[in-house]
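A note from the maintainers: we've had questions about how concatenated examples are separated. There is no special marker in the raw files; a new sequence line simply starts the next protein. For clarity in this README we add a label.
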Amino acid sequence: MPRGHNADSDSVSIATDIIEICDYSSNNVLGLLSDWPFSPGLGLFATKPIKRGVYIATYRGRRITTEEADRREARGAKYQFEINKRWTIDGSPRWNVARYINHSCRPNAKPVGRRGGIVIVALRRIEPGEEITYDYGRQYVEYFLENGGCHCAACRRRRALHRRRTRRRKWTT
C-alpha cells in the first residue's frame, strides 16, 4: 500500500477522479489531498468530523489468491491487502478510495474484517483536515521501509525531536 504518484498530469487526473468519488461517497466525509512536502503521494483527509468507531471506507477490489498476489507483487503491483493466508484484495483500481489511506505508527483508524472484506473504522474522533491513517503492520514496515525507516508523520516528528535533543547536548558539552 505504499503511495507512489508523481506530480504530473496523470496524477492530477487521478486526484480529480478520486475527489469526485469522495464527493459521492455514502458518508461524504473524505477528501483527497497531496501531502507533498512530507511524502511523494496522496493521502485521504477528513472533510467533516468523524466519530470514534464510525465506518470510514471499504478496501475495495478484486479478491485474488495469495499466490496470485505474490506473482503480481513480484511484477511491481501495489495496494494489495491480505485478508488471510488464502485471499488478498487487489486494491489497485482508482475507485478504491481506501487505497489512499497512508500508514502511521500512531494511527487514527484501523482495518476490520467484515463479511470476507476489509472496512476502515475510526479509532478516535478525527477532526476536519486531519489525515486518515492506519498501521500497515510490522511486516509492511520491515519489508518496504527497512532501509530508510518509517516515514509517517509520527516517526518524522520523533526523529526531528531526537535531532534537536542531540544538537542541544552537543551545544551544552
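[label: protein 2]
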Amino acid sequence: MTTDPTTATTPAPASKRPLVWLAIVSLAPFVASFVLYFWLEPSGRMNYGTLVSQRILPDVALTQLDGTPLEHRLRGKWSLIVVDSAACAPSCAQKLYATRQARTMQGKERDRVERLWLSPATRRPRQSLGPRIPIS
C-alpha cells in the first residue's frame, strides 16, 4: 500500500473567527464606556457631599502662642480653622477633634492640610485638651 502524496489530506487552515470574537469581547467594555461617557451623558448626577465654601482671611498678623509669625506655615496649604475662645467649651473641643480627624484621614497627604485655632484672647489654652490643640 502506497500513499500518493497528491491525494493525502492536508489540514484545513485554522479559522480566525475565535480570535475575532475574543478581540470583540475584550474591547467591548472599553468602547461602551467611551461611548457612554462622552456621547450619552446622564440627565442628572448624584453627588454624595457638598464642597466647603472657601473664605479668604483678612490681612491680620497671625502669631503663635510664643509670638512667632504664622504665615510661613500656611502658605500653599489647606487650612482647617476653628474660631473659639481660649477657655474652649466642650463644643470647641469637639471641633478641634473633628479637625484632627479630618487631617488624619488624608493619609500620606496630611502635611498638605494645616489645622488652625484662632482665639482672640492672649491666654494659653487649658492643658487638658492635650493633642487636640493644633499647635506644632
